[in-house]
Amino acid sequence: MLSYIHAYHAGNFADILKHTVFSYTLEHLGKKDKPYTVIDAHSAAGRYNLTDQRILKTHEAEKGIVELFKTDEKVLKEIFGDFFYTILKNYLNKKIYPGSPEISRCYLRKCDTLLLNELHPKVIEELKENIRKPLLVEKTEEPNIYIKNEDASKFLKECIPPKIKRGCVIIDPSYEDKNEYEDTAKMVINSLRKWSTPTYLIWYPLLVHREDEIESMKKIIYDFVDVRKPGDEEKCYFFEIKIKAPSQMTGLAKMYGSGMIVINPPYGLKEKMNQTIPLIEKALCTNKPPLL
Question: Which residues are designated catalytic?
Answer without folding.
Answer: 172
